[in-house]
Amino acid sequence: MKSEKEIPLVTIIMPTYNRAHFIGETIHSIQAQTHANWELYIMDDGSDDNTKDVVLSFNDERIRYYNEGRIGITGVLKNKAIRESKGEFITFMDSDDLLAPHKLEAQVKTLEQYPNAGFSFTNCHDFNEQGIQRIYLNKQQGMEVGDFFQDICWGHKLVFIQTVMLRRECIDTSAYFRENRIFTDFSFITNLASNYKAVILYESLFFRRLHKGNNINSNWTLDYDEYLETIERYKDEKKLSPEVANNILFIGVINCGIGHLKHQNKLMAIHCFISAWKYKPLSIIPLKKIIRAIVGTSA
């Protein structure tokens, strides 16, 4: 059995904004971890509810709370926490979600078992008051080690930043979060995957709460913008071949158009479908999508 000094310290980084009604339950799920050697950095983005009061009500010296006013870019908050933190391993959390009690322990053991892997990520599921709504990876047990860069770019392996645990030394070679966009998780994860092998834990260890206040619900187009810009950059940097990148971009732009249709924005949807021809000039799929958008049938 390892002594307390030999058990690795895990840094958990949690940006938050006006989550007083959820953050207490989230902190409890961290305190319930079977791996107890952790430090939690709560980076408050200028909440004007009683988030601070809820956090400070926890008498736990492992919790560190920061509030420097409204910034609006989580990459800035996460980078500050990374620089302040001391953990050998780093992981991330949202202040409205929950963890399985053994998540930290499972990922630490996995990274110790596979020293050539720079990071690990797990399966996850969405939940709301009615229960589990979606499990993201089809396999739900076992693990896999490998180079998943292209799979993540394609979306074949869907990775949420909250499921990722990485070694601290990976930050030095893979860089910090970008600070010029609201959403930068995809570029951070794929940049990490372009430099390091990973281990997938197919068990669902992260529980993503669905509610009306989810940021992705109101800013979904910004998420797409970051995704498409990142793939374009990898094509320019030759991390992805032009053929692979164009195929990914074609599907991404088409899906963005479908998203606009779901939000009743027909003009933006048609613009996306037209833009898709840039990546596959001979495809008839954009034409079919445009016709369906105009006549009002399902895309």
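The record above closes out task 2.4. Task 2.5 opens with a second protein, given below.
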Amino acid sequence: MITPSPLHPGDKIAIISPATEIKSGYIDGAIAEISRRGYIPVEMPYARGHEHGTFAATDSERLDDLTSALTDPTIKAILCGRGGYGCIHLLSHHLQQMVKDNPKWIIGFSDISALHALWLKAGVKSIHASMAKQLTLYAGHLQVGDASDLVVKENLSPSDHQQLSLCTDAMWQMMENPGSEICYSKPSREWSTLGEAKGMIVGGNLAVLNGLAGTPWDILTADYLSGKILFLEDVGEKIYQVERMLKRLHLCGALDAVEGLIFGDFTDYKPDRNFSDMTDMIRARLEEWEIFCPTALHLPIGHTTNNLPIMEGSQAHLSVTTDCTTLTIS
């Protein structure tokens, strides 16, 4: 895997919106936070978008922003404004080769998982982490109640802000010193599967990655996942829909192939007649399918204030004991 160049003060960071439209205030907040960190923000032409359905811009305009940022040698990282839906429109072999020829950091989560998959297939590491909305929240440039599509809809508590700060600092550390070791440690949740796993860490949003099945950018295959640690998260999916996607991974042998599993946050779902809790479903199905690799449950990754950044394509060590779950990324 290619590690993009470390960030240094004065480097340029492009801001793009490769999927759904974004509120202009989030772009302002991201610009302010990037500047505060000592970098030069570069707002790409369609980052704020224009009226084009739910998308930030047309497919060609969004792709132009991405390819222009990739091929500009003065830009060292690309921050995605938000997820939503639309990144799959940009995937192509041409873009994959461009990523390989111009390796640089791309940052985001949710729908950005499609781009992380492309980066992985190009052999380049990327950062699954917070985007413009979270940077805006962290910087305090908008009050939470001022925007309807914020991930966090209540005022941030001191604890929330502290966690957001830790995640944001870890994200920057990964890009500024990519050779450094970052360790996350949380109390183990009941029904976690104990053990240790080592391997390359990959993953992201389950629904987005599942939507790439059968394409050249499908990373949820037994061959690709062999010997790797897989992390998954999602938002707004019904319990049975998550179960169906996991069953596909079981049927194709992907769950048997992994060295370790991490289930992040599955938020904004409703109980159904089969299971009242998402974790209960995951636990029951893994037991039924005899998936006994080390498995961490409820590690805070995904659509949550405490969205732990993951350097996709890096080496990781997952340790799950009765008391503590530890994920070390290096």
